[in-house]
Amino acid sequence: MSKNKPVTIRGVTYESGAIAGVALGVSRHAVYKAQRLGRLETVGLGHTGGEWLKKGMRIAVRPISIQGVKYPSQRIAAEVLGVSPITISSAKRRGRLATVSDRRRA
Questions:
Q1: Would you kindly state where each structural domain of the chain is located, as residue ranges?
Q2: Of the residues 3, 34, 52, 53, which has the maximum number of CB atoms within 10 A of its CB?
């Protein structure tokens, strides 16, 4: 008899947590931890979906506005503008968000 137990994540049933991990690009340990915590719907999504876990805490991703354009998060703003998330964080901390521009236009 197989030890593997089926795991269903976002409507897809995988033969085991290890197979789910391969399909979703995470370790089998990440799948089993998410299962223990009751958070299988978020496994393999990275830091998307509005919330992410850091040291056991839930931190909400907050929207940010740069030069009149609203972005759902700093990470997404950085991707769209072609800069690193650290650039966005630094500009926000220094109160210089208006100076962040689309680096791809140059």
A1: 7-46, 62-105
A2: 34
Model-level pTM? Answer: 0.43
Kind and range of the H or E element at 65? strand 64-66
Distance between CA atoms of residues 21 and 12, nearest Å = 12
Please tell me the distance from the alpha carbon of residue 43 to that of residue 72, in angstroms, as a whole number: 20
For Cα atoms 46, 96, 64, give the angle at the middle one, nearest 5 degrees: 35
Task: Give the separation between CA 97 and CA 22, rounded to whole angstroms.
Answer: 39
17 class by beta-carbon count within 10 Å (0-12 exposed, 13-18 middle, 19+ buried): buried
- As a whole number of angstroms, the distance between CA 59 and CA 22 comes to 27
- Give the rounded distance of the alpha carbon of 91 from its chain centre: 21
CB distance 72 to 61 below 8 Å: yes
Splitting the chain (106 residues) into consecutive groups of 10 residues, what average pLDDT does each group show? 79 90 87 90 68 50 84 85 90 90 62
